[in-house]
Amino acid sequence: MLEFPIQPFGGEAVDSKFAPLPGAKLLDADLILIGGGLANSLIALAVAAQDPARRIILVDAGAPESGHTWSFHETDLDASQRRWIQPALACVWASQEVRFPHYRRHLRTGYASLTDASLAEALARCVSLTRIAARAVRISSQEVEIDNGRKLSAPCVIDGTGRIPKNYLALGWQKFVGVELECVAPHNRDVPILMDAQIAQHDGYRFVYTLPFTERRILIEDTRYADGADLDETNFVVAIDAYAVEHGWRGQEVRRERGVLPIAMAFNAEAFWADEAGGAVPVGMRAGLFHPVTGYSLPLAARVADIVANTPGDTPHVFACVRSFALAEAKRQKFLRFLSRLLFRAAASAERRKILERFYSLPTPLIERFYANQLTLADRARILIGEPPVPIRNAFACLSEQHLLDDAGQENRDRRRVPLFPRLFASQRASLNQLGRGAWRRRSSDL
Ligand SMILES: Cc1cc2nc3c(=O)[nH]c(=O)nc-3n(C[C@H](O)[C@H](O)[C@H](O)COP(=O)(O)OP(=O)(O)OC[C@H]3O[C@@H](n4cnc5c(N)ncnc54)[C@H](O)[C@@H]3O)c2cc1C
Questions:
Q1: pLDDT digits over 348-383, tens only?
Q2: What is the pTM of this model?
Q3: In order of start, what are the domains of the chain with their CATH numbers?
Q4: Starting at the edge strand that comes first in sequence, how are the strands of the sheet with 89-93 ordered?
Q5: Which residues are near ligand 1 (CB < 6 Å)?
């Protein structure tokens, strides 16, 4: 196991900084990050690497979940992102593998993981960062009120509170439970197996994901691409135990993680960003910034972190830059959302594995570009041509995402009925909010 000392999150030492200024605006910074999850932690790392003098306050509502792991393909990040993320890495592998009923494939694409502990350790080295363990109850574009009534202010406020904007999305789900085992003997795996789909299929597309952290420590994750978001943890753990027994791994469970990740079949990003105008800058899952087919957010979070690091300025300025990136990305993700619709709407649940099996037979650079959302036109054609793994009639029915958006929420229906005026109004809100600094936009119940 890769052990990292865990930096206490917030706590007395940080809180004492408030003491000398009772009743006043208690703490100023250049940048306030609300939420201490993946997106904001990467922003803190990127900003600290770019400009160590930029003062950052990070407010998080709870201690980090014990033992969270975030992984990515080395080709998801550019050289600069790999440089500043490096101090937060817990484990790096030179290659990876996938297994399907008709083949096994070794891919020479590096893979890496961060853990909450390795991330906390990297953040602890950022001298310009102050971490506060508190819940934000009100957020505006320049001020934040935390749950003890204290206020923080900064020219730039970023909201990375992790809540998915479901009203703007039509979603399927990737559900998983991961158990980390300390085996009594070496497990004999040396590369991550991203998908072992040589297993019984149920509850949608099912595979096991394994990360060998050390010779005896291995994470075994049972994953399902399912229609519903319910997670029956006991059922998953029983399946993981059976997989471990089948591979001869005996040992003690040392950590467990679980997740129900959104798979995007449709996203009205324009409406989302119009409705957010005038508030803090939404990032991470809170802004729908995740890969539509995997639900993973690290690559996009790293790119947004770069944008924030290279955009010293106030909230409206940073908002405009992140919004423009996010809208361009949402447009580029259109094809990926189509693939999600094929997976969830065109293929019968038991047939989903065939789509992935066919996809993984394609050339490695194409697969890398898929994860990094850099697919070319030729790649898209390559993915679609050949013997279709789903009935062609079903595939045609998936071409448009509009009808899914129609069902996605009352918000979107309202927007279509009165399309012009509210949009104009929303785009004006940023400047109005600038004039009325401190006018709280979001209700505490939203947080
Ligand atoms: C178990 C699990 C494993 C995953 N693995 C991967 C992976 O390997 N690779 C990958 O790319 N993606 C992965 N994901 C998907 C995605 O990257 C993560 O969900 C990621 O943590 C999202 O980052 P975020 O910062 O947007 O939200 P979060 O990481 O959820 O952070 C939100 C933070 O905001 C805090 N917060 C919420 N409300 C308030 C408030 N009012 N005031 C203050 N703080 C508040 C919460 O305490 C939380 O710490 C995984 C998800 C899960 C659940």
A1: 777 889 889 999 999 999 999 999 999 999 999 999
A2: 0.87
A3: 12-92+111-167+266-332+421-446 (3.50.50.60), 171-262 (3.30.70), 334-403 (no CATH)
A4: 69-73, 111-115, 89-93
A5: 34-40, 59-62, 68-72, 135-136, 160-162, 257, 259, 261, 284-286, 295-298, 447
